[in-house]
Amino acid sequence: MKLKEMPDEELFTRGHTACAGCGAAIAARNLIKVLGKDTVVVSPACCLLIFSATYPLIAWKVPYHHVAFENTAACATGMKRALKVRGKDATTVMGIAGDGGTADIGFQALSGAAERNEDILYVMYDNEAYMNTGIQRSGSTPFGAWTTTTPVGKVKSGKTTFKKDMPQIMMAHNVPYVATASVGHIQDFINKFEKAKKIKGFRYIQVYTPCPTGWRHDTSKTIEICKLAVDSGMWTLYECENGKVTINRKPKMTPVAEYLKPQGRFKHMTEADIKTLQDWVLKKWEKDEKLAQIKT
Q1: For the CA atoms of 103, 166, 60, 216, what is the dihedral angle to 10 degrees?
Q2: Which residue range forms the structural domain that includes residue 111?
Q3: Is residue 114 a contact partner of residue 173, using CB atoms and an 8 Å limit?
Q4: Could you check whether the bond before residue 56 is cis, i.e. omega within 30 degrees of 0?
Q5: What percent of the chain has pLDDT over 70?
Q6: Theoretical Cys-Cys bridge with 88: which of 83, 150, 196, 229, CB 3.0 to 4.6 Å?
Q7: How many domains does the chain have?
């Protein structure tokens, strides 16, 4: 499906209360257009829940279930199995959660569902912190980033550890499909959700979704930052289909400093900090490239 062929009907409607420039809202609006009406959404406490499904109003025009923080994948599993018993095996069941509800609090249920190869699509919208509860660091927060629990001051200077590599952790579960996507590369985004919809078994897509509030960037810069993330190598666009890894876009290797510059969460970083992150990016890209070479 090409971008111009996307349905006109909105299944994630306007009028929600997302912040201007919210990457998660862009992701939700577009992915549900690709997945279509025959979809059930399962989601825990997160920004997406708060701005799109706070009782009595809801932006989703498909069945939507709010579940506990830690059990999105378990509830999606139960929903899919129940639908199958009712003869509705064609219905797509999608669990969608932020990085906190996926990489940290929800990981146990997620890993179990992946290991059992449950027939669900799980989406992590990655805004790299617990944005809904006050911008606390998560396992997905990058090195150096300011959050309210990795403050900047005399003792501490942002997060001191690196981002958890969730896509490769999920690939280690030997599931049919794992992919990364970005709201700044919309055709690649469409292609991956369209592919995932057709695959049986467990599918995992991690979407890069900037948060202007938590990242302290101008609301008009969301897509620009997405492109900088890919061009600098901070975010690799790739997919793994039945063990075969394909890199969808080779980075230009723009200096990582250019990616950091528009974001206030990194403004405190020293030249040494930036070099540390740049070295990590180069090593990460080498690892991603070798993985693709080995698997192809």
Answers
A1: 80
A2: 3-295
A3: yes
A4: yes
A5: 98
A6: 83
A7: 1
In this prediction the pTM is 0.97
* Helix (H) and strand (E) counts in the chain: 10, 8
CA dihedral 202, 208, 212, 218 (to 10 degrees): -160
Which tokens hold the place of 133? 């509860």
At residue 95, what is the residue type? G
What's the half-sphere exposure (Cβ side, CA atoms, 13 Å) at 181?
Answer: 30
Rg (CA), the chain: 18
- Name the packing angle between helices 107-115 and 72-85 (round to 10°): 40
Is the CA virtual torsion 83, 93, 25, 4 positive or negative? negative
Q: Which amino acid is at 189?
A: F
pLDDT tens-digit map of 270-296 = 999 999 999 999 999 999 999 887 544
> What is the domain-level CATH number for residue 41?
3.40.50.970
In the block, residue with structure tokens 């290797």:
253
Taking alpha carbons only, the member of 24, 87, 96 closest to residue 67 is 96
Beta bridge pairs of residue 208: 126, 182
Q: Is 223 exposed, middle or buried (0-12, 13-18, 19+ CB in 10 A)?
A: middle
* Angle made by CA atoms 68, 71, 74, in degrees to the nearest 5: 135
In the sheet that holds 203-208, the strands lie side by side as 64-66, 39-43, 92-98, 121-126, 203-208, 177-182, 237-241, 244-249
Token digits of residue 127: 């805004």
Strands 92-98 and 121-126 come out as: parallel
Q: What backbone torsions phi and psi does residue 13 show, to the nearest 5 degrees?
A: -85, 160
